[in-house]
Amino acid sequence: MTRKLLFAAFFSVAATGLHADVIAPDDVAANEYGEVEVSLTGVSGDPARGEEVMTNRGLGNCIACHQVTALDDYPFHGEVGPTLDGAADRWTEAALRGMLVNADNIFPDSAMPSFYRVSGFVRPGNGYTGRAAEGPLEPILSAQQVEDVVAYLLTLTE
Ligand code: HEC
């Protein structure tokens, strides 16, 4: 094999390795308790990236609704939802993944957004125009961002 071919072969293996295991939003399976036990990506979450997602308004924006003492450096914590201090003592990894993917899994009729869901709800636009948005919706967070947030939440022990 030439060097170029070897390189190409390496790349295609690396690329499939990255994507093969990502579970699409409509394919995520929750158990009867609403828990999602299997990682969405098979790649361990990164708590530092999870912190970024939690505090970034364009991403999870979790602190708009939740107080988190460990994130006190970031301004404007909301109180729509409960504090997340000690969340890792109250919830399993599978339950946290389940509620992030689809809040209805754990909290029916919650004000909490579903971060990895693209169907089964009233589409944005419906309430105002009577017409649903066209085409597939993107989830609010990527599969890996959900895993990163789960990893961050698991650091919140008391
Ligand atoms: C629009 C407000 C809102 C946003 C944004 C939001 N949540 Fe929530 N969250 C809630 C509410 C309300 C509850 C309480 C559950 C219910 O509906 O009974 C909740 C519950 C939770 C719980 C369980 C808390 C406990 O210990 O009882 C966790 C964990 C959680 N949210 C994590 C997150 C994370 C992580 C994000 C960002 C990715 C997020 N939430 C974004 C409103 C929000």
TrEMBL record:
One Pfam family named in its UniProt record: Cytochrom_C
InterPro entries found in the cross-reference section: Cyt_c-like_dom (IPR009056), Cyt_c-like_dom_sf (IPR036909), Thiosulf_SoxX (IPR030999)
Transmembrane segments: none
Keyword Heme part of the UniProt annotation: yes
Name by which UniProt lists this protein: Cytochrome c domain-containing protein
Coiled-coil blocks: none
Domain Cytochrome c: 45-157
Signal peptide, first to last residue: 1-20
NCBIfam families in the record: thiosulf_SoxX (TIGR04485)
Keywords: Heme, Iron, Metal-binding, Signal
